[in-house]
Amino acid sequence: MLANALRPASIAVAAVRRACVLTASVFNKLVKQETLTKDDKSPVTVGDYSAQAVINTVLGRTFPSDPIVGEEDATDLRTPSGTVLRNRIVELANETLTAELQPGEKEEWGLGPNHSRTADELLDAIDRGNYNGGRTGRMWTLDPIDGTKGFLRGEQYAVCLALIVDSRVELGVMGCPNLPVNAADPTGARGCIFLAVRGQGAYQLPLSNPLAGPAERLAIPAFSAETLNLLESVEKAHAKLSFNERVAQLLGITRAPTRMDSQAKYCSLARGDGGVYLRMPTGVGYKEKIWDHAPGAILVEEAGGVITDSRGEPLDFGLGRTLGENHGVVAAGKEVHSKVIKAVKRAKEEEAKAETAEGH
Ligand SMILES: Nc1ncnc2c1ncn2[C@@H]1O[C@H](COP(=O)(O)OS(=O)(=O)O)[C@@H](OP(=O)(O)O)[C@H]1O
Ligand SMILES: [Mg+2]
Ligand SMILES: [Mg+2]
Ligand SMILES: [Mg+2]
Fold it and tell me: Where along the sequence do coiled-coil regions lie (predicted)?
């Protein structure tokens, strides 16, 4: 029974690790060594597509009837103007899929030197991510590179995969190639995989050898007002950081917030590097995507924490590709979480009062 529960976990970890090797090599080859203009997004495009091709190929082979809600689709790659990009992606995805097996990986998962794919097979694999999600059934959700801005800056990004059954996240895997193994040693070794299995805990694994290396069980520690800090977005367009400042004041927080791209914020929370992940909507009508939160949500819960929207309501992973109307996200250890919800409520009331006074 346990072996059955762990099979999807091992496969997801293996697929995410391979995708992380790929994205790290794309960064080294394209971002670091080539002269790119500041606004050139092409490396992240190559990375996004080929990482999705790799992971969906493994899932298509191991769980052929499971649909996938993935961020990317291959439409642009099928046009004549997509030829150069397509060839690059096919080369990178095949290089990754056909690399020698690591301890714990199995050839039956479609990995190893004998498993090269055609361009059509890889484009079809990317398009397996076109599923629309929904209330019932079993499905995967994938963000091949979460934190694209962080990726381009050489900072935090994550390869994120989750399994959802009847709207509930059952498994989450996040690969963070640039995250220090130990936050207390920020210049030390980097590269971690985070794994959470419903009812079986949250773990940090070494990215270099996750299926054979040591698994460290994670538990969110207790915080006081003195030790508490916020984990928040880097990009002002992604979250309302001014609101966070007021919430921090109301909570008596004195430490500066930790700003970090991607779901690495959830990973940092799960191992106690920060006390609260607060993501408030900016008011432009953006709807959060399920792949940006599903793996992080189960990691936080399995590390003993709570995740809700800013009203304290559960996130609903059964609405389709998005989380529906955007009320933000609050994730923290149990005690801290209820205090944050109260502070958020008060900060919203203040904001509403100020708006009324201004005659909005
Ligand atoms: N307007 C707006 N509001 C909220 N969220 C948005 C918005 N636009 C984009 N996104 C999504 O944010 C994902 C990255 O989130 P981060 O927490 O990494 O943001 S930040 O870069 O740290 O600021 C990012 O994920 P990736 O596209 O996978 O990088 C987007 O899905
Ligand atoms: Mg994302
Ligand atoms: Mg992405
Ligand atoms: Mg994106």
Answer: none
Q: Is pLDDT above 80 for 30? A: no
What are the pLDDT digits (tens) for 107-133? 999 999 999 999 999 999 999 999 999
- Are 266 and 331 within 8 A, CB to CB? yes
List all residues 6 or more positions away from 3 whose beta carbon is below 8 Å from its beta carbon: none
Q: Chain-wide mean pLDDT for the chain? A: 94
Residue 145 counted as an annotated binding residue: yes
76: CA distance to ligand 4 center in Å? 15
**Residue of 55, 153, 235 to test ligand 1 pocket, by largest number of atoms within 8 Å of CB:** 235
Active-site residue 48, yes or no?
yes
Backbone φ and ψ of 54, nearest 5°: -65, -50
Cβ neighbours of 23 (radius 10 Å): 28
- Ligand 1 site, residue 234, Cβ cutoff 6 A: yes
- Beta bridge pairs of residue 332: 276, 306
Cβ(343)–Cβ(337) below 8 Å: no
Contact yes or no for 129/69 (Cβ under 8 A): yes
ipTM: 0.95
* Cβ–Cβ under 8 Å, residues 255 and 348: no
Going by CATH, does the domain composed of 230-357 fall within 3.10.450.50? no
Instruction: Report the pLDDT value the prediction gives residue 32, as an integer from 0 to 100.
Output: 64
Instruction: Output the CA–CA distances (angstroms, integers) from residue 295 to 159, 272, 291, in the order listed.
Output: 10, 17, 7
Annotation says 316 is catalytic: no
Spans of all domains in the chain: 230-357
In the predicted model, what is the mean pLDDT of residues 276-282?
97
Summarize the chain as % helix, strand, coil (round to 5).
40, 20, 40
292 is in an annotated binding site: yes
| Active-site choice (23, 62, 148, 308) | 148
The pLDDT score that the predictor gives to residue 1 is: 41
Q: How far is the CA of 303 from the centre of ligand 2 (A)?
A: 22
The model carries a pTM of 0.96
